[in-house]
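Project standup — Tuesday

K.O.: blocked on the structure for the chain from last sprint. Re-posting the sequence here as requested.
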Amino acid sequence: MEDLIGQISDFVWGPPTLILIVGTGIYLTLRLGFLQIRALPYALRLAFSPAKQDKNSKGDISHYQALTTAMAATIGTGNIVGVATAVVLGGPGAVFWMWITALFGMATKYAEAILAVKYRVENSKGEMSGGPMYYLEKGLKAKWLGVLFAIFGACAAFGIGNMVQANSVSDALNSSFSIPTWVTGLVLTVLAALVIIGGIKSIGKVTAFFVPIMALFYVLGGLVIIVMNLDIVPAAIGLIFSDAFTASAVGGGLLGTVIRYGVARGVFSNEAGLGSAPIAAAAAKTDYPGRQALVSMTQVFIDTIIVCSITGITIVMADLAGSGLEGGPLTQASFAAFLGDWGGYIVTIGIVLFAFSTLVGWSYYGEKCFSYLFNDKVVPVYRIIFVIAIFWGSVQTLDLVWSISDVMNALMAIPNLIGLLGLSGVVVYETKKFLEIAKKEKEEARA
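H.V.: unblocked you, prediction finished:
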């Protein structure tokens, strides 16, 4: 059974899907005139110093909280384990293709968010509900695609967004500190319940505080390594660039080994095109869809260009990719090569924090998928079951769940990308409208 699911996973994450994901990003980039580069400084300012007019706008949480909720779900084990896997299987050049994927993924994430806000609805509790299922139904007039997305998203939430994350935490703490898995499971369950039961406002407050701390903790650890070893950094970066265009990168069929693993792990890490993050974006207080979309776009920049780069450059500098180690252990060994035991502890703690944040962020995604499929009355029951699943996942072996979740994750992307391509005209229209408004605001601020 596991072999069959693995084959299905290889197929759905194969060249056709990856080409569709990256191709959509390239198409949107061209239609938007490389907005992700032109507007990045302004987007970062919006993310960390929200516009005053948004305080009185419709929504449940602030720009910043919507960003950190999405980042909580995306800054996960992929930033540590996924990057290491890409370097082992694809070579150092895979890091370069992760950067390329992120560049175009920023345009995709922008488009997802702008549609999520435009087509969001107010539920029976007065809260905002949005995401691919709503813009597929209301914008593209294809409710069946919205239903498919919600089904795949609901399944992925319990798998890759819940049990496998809890399992990663319990395994990491058991191997590093000999903490019994049931103890970790119990603590995780209680902590997650305190956050999740309160809904999006509670999740937003926690992620706004928690996400910057966990990201800075890991990034600072990596920066210490880089600063202490500046003499070998140029060679490592040079190897990343040169290896990206080796025979293995341009050969091997339609997608070379380096390109394939770089793109696949880049998408897995930042989730651009999968349709998960716009569910959080739809809850933001914002006066124009374009304003929140620019904020959401920065998530890919932070996740892949900053956090994944720290992991990738450190692994290349340590030169342990051929040692037989893979995934988390390789990242741990690479950090330890420069910082001793403390390096391994940084990665272990990073895995724990990143996995927990992913669990919290995905709880909201799953909630919205379930409420779309059924109704808002199922939400309390969903939250209880989600919390119980955390403990179960902490004490079980979940290889099959990992594989099934990976398939569901990929299948989410297909209806979402159809929606992005079909509604790209709406994205362009809303972008032009907002950029004109932003220009006027800038002129008024100068006057």
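K.O.: great, moving the ticket to review. The chain has 21 helices and two strands. The CA atoms of residues 24 and 421 lie 7 Å apart.
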